[in-house]
Design a protein that fits this description.
This protein is about 60% helix and about 0% strand. It is mostly helical and about 140 residues long. Helix 1 packs across helix 4 and helix 2 runs antiparallel to helix 4. Keywords: Hydrolase, Membrane, Transmembrane, Transmembrane helix.
C-alpha cells in the first residue's frame, strides 16, 4: 500500500493577494516575492512620489483659483472664439488623477510595510509616469 503525504496547506492571505494584485497584477502566491526591490522599481517609486507632488500642487492651484474661473473663460473665449466652461473639467480630471496616483502611492507604501517586493504593473507605469501638463 502506498502512503501519500498530505497536501501542503497555505492559509489564504486575501489582503496580501489584493495588495499585490492591484499594484502589480500578481494575484497568485507563487508570483509574490520577499526579495529586495530592484533599483528600477525604486526609481518608479520615486517617480510616482514626484508625480503625486506635482498632481497635488496642480489640484491645489485649480482649487484655489476658483475666483478667477470667469477671467480664465474670457481669456479662452478671446483666443478660441467660443465660450466654454473649462475650469470644471480641468478640476475634475485633476482630482481623478490625484485620487488614482494617491491610491497607487498608498499601495506602494503598504508593499513596503509588509515587506513585499514592489513590482508596479506596466499599465500603472504608463498612466502614472506622466505628470499633468499645464494648458
Amino acid at each position: 500500500m502506498v502512503k501519500h503525504q498530505p497536501l501542503q496547506y497555505y492559509e489564504p492571505q486575501l489582503c496580501l493577494s489584493c495588495l499585490t494584485g492591484i499594484y502589480g497584477c500578481r494575484w497568485k502566491r507563487y508570483q509574490r516575492s520577499h526579495d529586495d526591490t530592484t533599483p528600477w522599481e525604486r526609481l518608479w517609486f520615486l517617480l510616482l512620489t514626484f508625480t503625486f507632488g506635482l498632481t497635488l500642487t496642480w489640484l491645489y492651484f485649480w482649487w484655489e483659483v476658483h475666483n478667477d474661473y470667469d477671467e480664465f473663460n474670457w481669456y479662452l473665449y478671446n483666443r478660441m472664439g467660443y465660450w466654454s466652461d473649462w475650469p470644471m473639467p480641468i478640476l475634475v480630471t485633476t482630482a481623478a488623477a490625484f485620487a488614482y496616483i494617491a491610491g497607487l502611492l498608498v499601495l506602494a507604501l503598504c508593499h513596503i510595510a509588509v515587506g513585499q517586493q514592489m513590482n508596479l504593473h506596466w499599465l500603472h507605469k504608463v498612466s502614472s509616469g506622466f505628470p499633468p501638463s499645464p494648458l
